[in-house]
Amino acid sequence: MYEIVEGFLEAIRLIVTLDPNVMAIAVRSIIISLTATIIASLFAIPLGAAINFGTFPGRKSLINLIQTLYSLPTVIVGLLIFLLISRVGPFGFMRLLFTPTAMIIAQTVLIIPIMTGLTISALSGVDPVIRDTLRSLGATKLQFLTNVIKEARFAILATVAVGFGRAISEVGAAILVGGNIAAASFASSTRVLTTAISLETSMGNISQSIALGIVLLVIALGVNLAIAAVQHR
Amino acid sequence: MYRRTIFAVAAVMVALLFICGCTGTTTDQTPAEKQQLRIATTTSLYDTKLLDHLTPIFEEKYNAEVLIVSGGTGKAIEYGQRGDVDVLMVHDRAREDAFLADGYGVNRRVFAYNYFVVIGPESDPAGIKGMGPVQAFKTIYAAGESNTPGVTFISRGDASGTHSKEQAIWKAAGFNYSTDIQGNDWYQEAGTGMGATIAMTNEKQAYALSDIGTFLAYKGDVDLVALVDEGDALLNVYCAMQINPEKYPDTNIALAKEWTNFLISDEIQQEIASFGVAEYGQPLFYAAQNDWEKIGVTEAEVKDPVA
């Protein structure tokens, strides 16, 4: 019990004093996961829209498959990316292993299925009355699409938040392809909140772990507040 | 009003992020000529913070950036075979020899050594205190098999150098590791690094094999003692090996050589020998330089700089 209280107090001290080590790890986490979320959005949202509005054979099975991939284990994504970008792998020549870029790739791959699936749900959740009204008013195909997407924009925004949340909170892929490196320069380091928590706990630095855990939660809270603010506007 | 508060909070957070981001990026302007050296290391050299102590000296001297991936000898060798790093720092002679023989590594140099210890609870339910390592393992086995309360052995179980050493001691004690030892109720494989294994051993008040360096670094935080610390079987020798440039020509050969020579240089040998003395009252590692006979390696392996 004492350990938890002590760890918590130390955590607050680290956060209040903006401990450079903790802050660098937090900022790196945000940069990596935000980049992954933006790239994944560029793929997942159009893909989700295409699947939602499209009619083609196997559409139901495709949606089932995407929903299955929601629970894609992060270590499997990590292993897959590791094998692809390791020196002897097909993309080994790019020397991406143990770089932040590799972590962005892994997180992007990880969250594309859930973002695609949730985009489909978001679009299919648009009130049928609106769809019918648009059609009956003689909207062109483009007008129809833009209006339905506009109607679903908050749900799509929530999709982006879910993607970011999954990206920043995963540890399996980050440690496999990032290597949890603490280098002298910011850009070469691959230590993020989750991998740092894992390491610090195994090294017995409980207070550091608690501090990093709180920062992770604060970031999640910040994202949710930002989304809520936009939705209430 | 409510909405305004949310916006204010959001704005402050975004502003903070930008400030952090900016301060982060100012330290980020690595000159283009700064070269990177990638090292895969056994966890003991990392968890004891020895590498944290040595790398800044190297980085300044050679205007380089050192990237360290820590993860046990088995993992380090795997990274080495795949060409994902430039230098390995490991401690498992048999696998090092295989790595060199298979042509993956070159220029093995021994830079440090220490001893393994069998750690356990002060109460020592199996009664191994003061025994030799082989006798201690036999005793733990007998106590485990007869269900003596409180006798559990936690193994690294991660194909690390320490795990190899543990298997070698079981073998020396006359057991077949996979049939006699693995799968027993009293024998548990942690599958993780040394620090985490010590933490687990502490939680379960069990026995474990640890390198002395990591154990000393953790000793203050755990209720465990070193019960067996003498015996030739406990010798633990650390070496650095370069990835064979013929196999992976675009590894950072030049810097890998500098790193190896840096480790066996007089200055760094002294740093290694004195590391941790102030904090723990005894060194975590011994310099290999003058003890090559004692640790069974050639003089060239501890002294001759890589050409």
Architecture of the largest domain in chain B, CATH level 2? 3-Layer(aba) Sandwich
> Helix coverage percent of residues of chain B?
40-55%
Portion of residues in beta strands of chain B equals 15-25%
Chain pair with largest interface: A-B, 37 and 41 residues
CATH topology of chain A: MetI-like fold
Distance between the termini of chain B: 72 Å
Q: Which topology of the largest domain in chain B does CATH recognise?
A: D-Maltodextrin-Binding Protein, domain 2
Which sheet architecture does the biggest sheet of chain A show? none
Give the overall form of chain B: globular
Helix segment tally of chain A: 11
What is the residue-mean pLDDT of chain A, rounded to a whole number? 92
From the N-terminal CA to the C-terminal CA of chain A, the straight-line distance is 43 Å
The residue ranges of chain B in which pLDDT falls below 50 over 5 or more consecutive positions are 12-31
Strand proportion of chain A, as a percent range, falls in under 5%
For the record, the CATH architecture of chain A stands as Orthogonal Bundle
CATH class of the largest domain in chain B: Alpha Beta
Question: Level of helix content of chain A?
Answer: over 70%
Number of beta strands of chain B: 10
Write up this protein.
The complex is a heterodimer of chains A (233) and B (307). Chain A has 233 residues and is mainly alpha-helical. Chain A has a single domain, classed as MetI-like (MetI-like fold, Orthogonal Bundle). Chain A contains 11 helices and no strands. The longest helix of chain A has 34 residues, at 20-53. The radius of gyration of chain A is 21 Å and the shape is globular. Chain B has 14 helices and 10 strands. In chain B, strands 1, 2, 3, 4, 5, 6, 7, 8, 9 and 10 form a 10-stranded mixed β-sheet that branches. The A-B interface holds A 18, 20, 23-24, 26-28, 30-31, 86-88, 92, 95, 97-98, 179-188, 201-204, 222, 225-226, 228-229, 232-233 and B 3, 6-7, 9-10, 13, 17, 20-21, 23-25, 27-28, 30, 34, 36, 38, 47, 55-56, 59, 65-70, 82-84, 192-193, 195-196, 199, 218, 221-222, 248, 250.
